[in-house]
Specification:
- The complex is a heterodimer.
- Chain A is mainly beta.
- Chain A contains no helices and eleven strands.
- Helix content of chain A is 0%, strand content 54%.
- In chain A, strands 2, 4, 5, 9, 10 and 11 form a six-stranded mixed beta sheet that branches.
- The mean pLDDT of chain A is 91.
- Chain B is mostly beta strands.
- Helix content of chain B is 0%, strand content 50%.
- In chain B, strand 7 and strand 8 form a beta hairpin.
- The chains are: A mainly beta, B mainly beta.
Chain lengths: 115, 113
């Protein structure tokens, strides 16, 4: 079985400040890890993903995440927040193989950016 | 490419009514999925179809049925709607190659009174 825990259902930062959204996972096999963003009344858009290889993954809109196997973490960061980053962010894990790409999602973190 | 499309965008039902949510993708993906999103619970998998002609239950299948009509289309049916099925429903499809990225539709907001 696989699971995802996102620490903090709400995160608030000032414009220009560091964004850090935390994600821990559990998986019995090497995982594929994803971060999705959801803007109000829209579907989910892929920010970035880790499959294999380099553990520091860069995504769209200046976001990046680092896969740390020893800590079972995949935290999302952005050096400088922008007002347009305000959205809900979801971390997800997939085990690949016969799981047929099924994703298990965390509960989501709502990011608020203050001027 | 339209990607993943869903109809309707919004629906209000009375308890006991039935309806079908439609999903189609034009990316030639093999696998398709239905999720529901509820506040504070993330997205939970209802049913999935690994390939045309196959369907399997996900985490929360009770009260739902699905049909993989062809490679493009995957529908979700509520036979007798209940207030607990008030939610936002997302359809997704998976890219065949690479790291199993799923692409999501815009969602259907369902209110059951």
């Amino acid at each position: 079985a696989q699971s995802v825990t996102q620490l903090g259902s709400h995160v608030s930062v000032s414009e220009g400040a560091l964004v850090l959204l935390r994600c821990n996972y559990s998986s019995s096999v090497p995982p594929y890890l994803f971060w999705y963003v959801q803007y109000p009344n829209q579907g989910l858009q892929l920010l970035l993903k880790y499959t294999t290889g380099a553990t520091l993954v860069k995504g769209i809109n200046g976001f990046e995440a680092e896969f740390k196997k020893s800590e079972t973490s995949f935290h999302l960061t952005k050096p400088s927040a922008h007002m347009s980053d305000a959205a809900e962010y979801f971390c997800a894990v997939s085990s690949g193989g016969t799981s047929y790409g099924k994703l298990t999602f965390g509960q989501g973190t709502i990011l608020t950016v203050h001027p | 490419n339209a990607g993943v499309t869903q109809t309707p965008k919004f629906q209000v039902l009375k308890t006991g009514q039935s309806m079908t949510l439609q999903c189609a993708q034009d990316m030639n993906h093999n696998s398709m999925y239905w999720y529901r999103q509820d506040p504070g619970m993330g997205l939970r998998l209802i049913y999935y179809s690994a390939s045309e002609g196959t369907t399997d239950k996900g985490e929360v299948p009770n009260g739902y049925n699905v049909s993989r009509l062809n490679k493009r289309e995957f529908s979700l049916r509520l036979e007798s709607a209940a207030p607990s099925q008030t939610s936002v429903y997302f359809c997704a499809s998976r890219r065949q190659a690479g790291g199993e990225t799923q692409y999501f539709g815009p969602g259907t907001r369902l209110l059951v009174l």
